[in-house]
Design brief:
With about 230 residues, the protein is an alpha+beta fold. Helix content is about 60%, strand content about 10%. Helix 1 runs antiparallel to helix 2 and helix 5 packs across helix 6. The model has no long low-confidence stretch (mean pLDDT about 90).
């Protein structure tokens, strides 16, 4: 008799739009029992249920947001302890690693390509501080897309890298249809192609390109392979 009454109450509350979480403690049965009793009962959540669900979700979102922020803060703190200050040696090895990834592999030219300003500034710092290259020996060419504001892009890269506008070559506009669809709006300032000019100093010409390749082979352990080429 008690169970029959409990089932009747459960059905009525379900019809009224209440959730299993709300009904179960009211009638004193488990949610698994309710799922059997109420399997065929039409259910449309009422306003109170919707509000409870909304608050629960909002609370869950806030908890996740806070945990995410705490994770970022902890990672930042640990990163500061791990890296500390960047030494001269650190800068040299970091720059070489970047060049191995994005630099020219030619034995006769030194160049570097990237669209990320922070990375480009770091490689410029590598050239000037680690290698001793005067900044006047650097040239840049922007590769842009038909929808790119070329004047704005030139001003951006010049102001942010410290290169004067007369150190920039004429931009290259990529008009390939497949590229236009994929890159439109994603690279508002285009991609920067940085090149080293010797300006009459042999150590910054072919010799520098070959020296960087030798450094790379040393780090990658490919010296013997390079010697066979």
């Amino acid at each position: 008799m008690v169970k029959t009454h409990a089932r009747f109450l459960a059905i009525e509350m379900r019809k009224a739009g209440h959730s299993y979480n709300y009904i179960a403690p009211k009638v004193g049965v488990s949610k698994s029992t309710l799922s059997i009793w109420l399997a065929d009962v039409p259910y449309t959540p009422n306003l109170a249920t919707i509000n409870r669900i909304g608050k629960a979700r909002a609370a869950s979102v806030e908890v996740k947001r806070r945990l995410k922020q705490e994770t970022f803060e902890r990672a930042k703190k640990e990163a500061q302890n791990d890296v500390q200050s960047v030494s001269t040696r650190d800068l040299f090895m970091l720059g070489l690693g970047l060049y191995i990834g994005e630099g020219a592999k030619s034995p006769s030219a030194t160049s570097f390509v990237n669209s990320n300003l922070a990375i480009m500034n770091l490689i410029i710092r590598w050239f000037t501080e680690s290698i001793g290259l005067p900044k006047r020996n650097l040239r840049m060419r922007l590769h842009v897309y038909p929808d790119t504001d070329q004047e704005q892009s030139l001003e951006f890269w010049s102001s942010q890298t410290g290169l004067s506008e007369d150190q920039f070559f004429r931009p290259v506009v990529d008009v390939r249809k497949d590229k236009k669809a994929n890159k439109s709006g994603k690279l508002p300032y285009g991609t920067a192609h940085l090149t080293v000019k010797s300006l009459g100093e042999k150590r910054f010409g072919v010799f520098l390109a070959r020296k960087i390749l030798a450094w790379s082979d040393r780090v990658l352990g490919t010296e013997e392979i390079a010697g066979l080429v």
